[in-house]
Amino acid sequence: MYVNGYLLSVPEDKKDAYVAIVNVFVEVAKEYGALEIFENWELEVPDGEQTDYRKAVQAKPGEKIVFSWVVWPDRRAGAVAHEHMWEDPRWDNLGESPVDAKRMVMGGFEPIVAYRKE
User: Is residue 115 one of the residues assigned to a domain?
Assistant: First the structure.
């Protein structure tokens, strides 16, 4: 298993535009083999003294934090998906992104502990 994690900020008044993009991402990622996809919108994100989610993405006033991750069968599947999924024509008509990608934090992870209540 391999997990891509993302941390970003989205202007609160652009939530619907972000959700529209995420819905396309989910469709495309599923076709490329994603096992699970989570997109999470800020409800409780406290400010830290030295660091926090807002500082990590240089969030501006009026922006909400989004914490998301995608689970792939393995690292190779995630790499292949990311290499090709952005070429999908479903991206063509979405308009301008509400996300400043330069402030997004992302990375790939190997799970070391996982729990899911069945």
Answer: no
Is 47 a member of any domain? yes
**Residue 30 and residue 8: Cα distance in Å, rounded?**
21
CATH of residue 29: 3.30.70.100
Per residue in 57-88, pLDDT (tens digit) is 999 999 999 999 999 999 999 999 988 888 88
Whether residue 45 contacts residue 65, with contact meaning beta carbons closer than 8 Å, is answered with: yes
pTM of the full structure: 0.90
DSSP string, 32-66: TT-SEEEEEE-S--PPPSS--HHHHTTPPTTEEEE
Segments forming the whole domain that contains residue 30:
2-64+72-109
Separation between Cα atoms, residue 37 and residue 4, nearest integer Å: 10
What is the domain count for the chain?
Answer: 1
Category of 87 on φ-ψ map: left (φ > 0), alpha (ψ -120 to 50) or beta: alpha
How many Å apart are CA 29 and CA 42, to the nearest integer? 23
